[in-house]
Design goal:
Number of helices: 16
Shape: elongated
CATH architecture of the largest domain: 3-Layer(aba) Sandwich
Largest sheet: 6 strands, parallel
Order of helices and strands: EHEHEHEHHEHHEHHEEHHHHEHHEEH
Number of strands: 11
Structural class: alpha/beta
Strand order of the largest sheet: 3-2-1-4-5-6
Distance between the termini: 29 Å
């Protein structure tokens, strides 16, 4: 299966920025024929950097080039009657439509399941919106910051802060929308699988808020079982646990099990402070972490992150180098998995990108398409999908 696990599937993406484009990209990486539908002005991602050489260009946006690989580009003016008719022509031949945006905007554009399924009852329509298509908050405006706050992530990040004056801290970028994109791709596949039994498509309603709330680890259980509200404030109950600085940067270390602690003490040559009463057990080691962590840091600071990782892992001590982007790019492990790929683009040139985060043994992943120029394949997709549908109908037995 050189064409991918989803070869033969036709997906329309009517989204912008991250959530729907990332969901559609994942489907495209698995072999689906993805048509990215943009308005004449293009996806706003085209106006987001970074740009090569710092020169703004809608065909050279790093965000656009990354998110829209494995797709063909279609421009349709859904503000016009002719444009809406062209979009419905595509929907008639599609297996799935992935849409993102505010619910009212989705409805105004005629991209609801009710409207699209009237044209093609077998189509799966996945909508990705900040709060979902139903509920009292469905029409609230939201940015990435609003989404992570509404989902509960912001309240608990970063963890183990002792200074209540320090504010919540959002993760860099649009992580909520990337998470929603992953959820969107998975549930679209689920609905396509269900279509085999149902015979018809369905609407899949993805809420970014709910995606984030579902990923909050044990925080709901803390409330349910213990009546405690999880917070970014406070300290770890057991230790040592935290980030220290070694010779070339930050390094994460945790020795919360007694046997791990003893192996660390042995590796460090049984320093005198390891026998202090204030470090007698893991509860005390956590309570006195402000004293303990600098001592551990001093004992390990002659090592690089790689050296510390190799030395401590060999002794079954849980740890990890805190990777920066340069370390990720140079990772021998990611290189062995062929994670990074080089892709040529007529405007941006040959650049290196993160590839797919998965591998199929029987239907290999590969970079099938670079990101499209604006409207590059409009007529091609309209013609191809119509021809494919006609050929399929003609091949069906009478």
């Amino acid at each position: 299966m050189r064409n991918g696990a989803l070869a033969g599937m036709r997906v329309i993406e009517c989204g912008e920025l991250v959530a729907a484009p990332y969901a559609a990209k994942l489907l495209g990486h698995m072999g689906a024929d993805v048509a990215k539908v943009e308005p004449p002005g293009g996806d706003p991602a085209r106006r987001r950097g970074p740009f090569p050489d710092g020169v703004e260009d809608p065909e050279r946006s790093g965000l656009h080039l990354y998110l829209n690989q494995a797709k063909r580009g279609v421009v349709i003016d859904w503000e016009s009657e002719q444009g809406r008719a062209r979009l419905l022509r595509l929907v008639a031949h599609a297996d799935a439509v992935v849409v993102s945006g505010a619910p009212r905007e989705i409805e105004r554009r005629g991209l609801t399941y009710e409207r699209l399924s009237a044209v093609n009852p077998r189509v799966v329509v996945t909508t990705i919106t900040p709060f979902g298509m139903t509920g009292p908050r469905r029409d609230w405006a939201a940015t990435e910051l609003t989404e992570v706050a509404a989902g509960g992530w912001l309240y608990i990040s970063p963890g183990a802060l002792r200074d209540p004056s320090l504010p919540p801290l959002k993760a860099f970028g649009q992580q909520a929308d990337f998470q929603a994109g992953v959820h969107g791709a998975i549930v679209t596949l689920g609905a396509l699988f269900a279509r085999r039994e149902l015979g018809i498509g369905q609407h899949v309603d993805v809420s970014v808020q709910a995606c984030i709330a579902s990923n909050l680890e044990m925080n709901f259980m803390h409330w349910t079982y213990a009546g405690r509200v999880a917070s970014r404030l406070g300290q770890r109950a057991i230790g040592p646990w935290g980030i220290i600085e070694v010779a070339d940067g930050p390094f994460f270390l945790t020795c919360i099990e007694e046997d791990q602690w003893q192996r660390l003490v042995e590796y460090l040559g049984h320093p005198e402070w390891a026998d202090w009463d204030v470090f007698a057990d893991r509860l005390l080691r956590a309570q006195n972490g402000d004293v303990l962590m600098p001592l551990i840091e001093e004992a390990l600071q002659h090592l690089t992150r790689e050296q510390a990782y190799v030395e401590l892992q060999a002794r079954k001590i849980a740890c990890a180098p805190v990777f920066d982007m340069a370390m990720l790019r140079g990772s021998d492990h990611l290189a062995a998995r062929r994670f990074f790929v080089e892709v040529d683009h007529p405007d941006a040139g040959r650049l290196t990108y993160p590839g797919a985060p998965f591998r199929f043994s029987g239907s290999p992943w590969e970079v099938r398409r670079r990101a499209p120029r604006l409207g590059e394949h409009t007529e091609e997709v309209l013609a191809d999908w119509s021809a494919e549908r006609r050929a399929a109908e003609e091949a069906m037995p009478a």
